[in-house]
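Okay, any thoughts on this one?
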Amino acid sequence: MIYTGKPAFLPYLRYYISLLIWVALTSCAIIGGGPSGGKKDIKPPIVKNVDPPNKSVNFNASKIAITFDEFVDLDNVYKEVIVSPTLPKLPEIFVNRKTLTINLKNTTLQPNTTYSIQFGNAITDINEKNVLRNYRYVFSTGSYLDSLFIKGRVVEALSHKLAVGYKIELYKEGNDSGIYKKKPLYYARTDSFGKFNINYLPKGGFLLYALNDKNDNYFVDEGEDVGFPPGVLKVDSSMIIADSIPAFPYVPTQFYVKKAQLSNHSLQVKFNHFIDSVNVFVNKKKFFTVFEKHNEIKDSFIWWMSEDFPEMEVSAYYNSTHLDTVIKRSEKTTPLKFSFEVSSSIDNSNYYELPILLKANKPVDNINLAKVLFYKDTSMVKDLKYKNIDDNRTVLALLYNYEDGKNYKFKFLPGAVSSIFGDKNKDTIQANLIIPGLKNYGYFEITTITDEGNYIFQLVNESGTVTFYKNVSRETLVKIPFVNPGKYKARLIKDENKNGRWDGGDIKTRREPEVVFYYPGTFNIKANWELVGTKFDLTKKEKPAPPKKR
């Protein structure tokens, strides 16, 4: 052997280093989850075995085991899993690797009853979260499975939007108060099309409710929507409810004052719901206020009075029935300074024919036109007039033969405008307005044809806001100038009780909400275009007329 001065293992060193590098790179590729070359798993879990078998009869097991072809997980069990008939407590449901277990050990099941456990979107595979949609396990503690069903659809009564995610609750006939304080016997949820299907029902009479159960307590509460078909559903065979069930905001039977303030010659009261009429008492005697103002839905009121009272009693009535009384004492607040503003009326509903409005924070007693300087462009003009629009005298129209595109300037000198309390504007108030030309807006005409009943016509924009309304009956030509360009829907409300607004239904009497009819299709109103010649006939189906350019 000849000694060369180099270690004996050196010839193998390069081999070992190359081997270590290859192993490291291969391991990193596997651990890091690099491209595997396979397709992404998009299939939901598949049921391989069920013990006891699905749709078992004479069921007496203490647990149910459902085994899948892969590892599974459960998501949002409380919301997604529906057990019908309902149980006092949801049974324990858990997964272990590939098996889902329903523990019924501490659950009391009724004899001769068919139970359905529907999982909605709760079951997923553990890796890709592929959902096994609407898996259902059914069993009967009796000798046969009940097989009847009720199908239907729910819509929001006023907007006609699909009622998605509503609970459909069934109570036994005679349980009229169940929706207020008891869990339903059977329930389901509406899908993305507002449709529902309650399966495996026995024969019998049921009360059905559709409920937008925001707090998930199964009961109808203030702020939630509810709907129902009229009468009792006699289920002798499977049933499809032909007409959509209209859901409406629930009106509590208890009315009360939410907020009240007495100060600055005014009493402001807000109720938890609209009120038909309100009586105000001073020293137990009915007080006839100077002016009253309420919002459109009549749940907020303001009364202005000629004097400040130290104490007032407010009593609310609904259909002549006394609802609530509150005694309010005067509060020490900063005196309300009288103020007003002048603006265009174009964006104010139903003031289209009155281009310029004056809005005040107190009822106006008088406008001294001698102290109002009025200009068209640069020329002073003298023909300005005014009139009250609202009974409360807080909105007035400034009248003149205005011309489109012209600039108008108002100067209200000190003392020009006075309130009913004698206070006046102390400073000069100016306003510069250009009357918008029709070329910037659309013009809309529609003829409504109804029976001799009372109807309310409404034009509704894409956000659901009513931009125009008018009471109509039989054949009425509705003209709406100065419509902001956009897409609109037209609807007619059958005003059964003639109170000038849409009313929902009543749970106790199972009275459905007032009917709302929508014109088929959407009106696309463009600037400097007019849409005329359309007939909204409740007995015919017509398409919107195409817009005609001016």
